Amino acid sequence: MSKSSASASAGRRRGPRVAEPRGCPICGKPPDAALRPFCSRRCADVDLARWLRGDYAVPAVEDDAGMEGVSGDDGE
């Protein structure tokens, strides 16, 4: 095997991917292990307040096709 093919195959090694460490989602500082993914209690509390206020929301798409035969009454 030539040097170039050996180095090329080394770059294509398959193995478990290790996620790169991300910063705090609020301020971007390195996270504290005890408060992960946050760097401080303050940032964790800011995030909690955002959830409680409804700042974070998952968009929903209503599908009427899946609701066939379902009605609000008992059919009487």
Order of helices and strands: HH
* Helix/sheet category: mainly alpha
Amount of beta strand: under 5%
What is the distance, rounded to the nearest whole angstrom, between the alpha carbons of the first and last residues?
A: 79 Å
Number of helices: 2
Radius of gyration: 25 Å
If you average the pLDDT, what whole number results? 79
- What general outline do the C-alpha atoms trace? flat
**What does the main sheet amount to?**
none
> How many runs of DSSP E, i.e. beta strands?
0
Helix proportion: 25-40%
Q: pLDDT under 50 segments (min length 5)?
A: none
In short:
With 76 residues, this protein is mainly α. The protein has helices spanning 3-11, 41-53.
Task: Provide an overview of this structure.
With 76 residues, the chain is an all-alpha fold. It has a domain at 25-55. Helix content is 29%, strand content 0%. The longest helix has 13 residues, at 41-53.
Salient structural properties:
76 residues; mainly alpha; flat
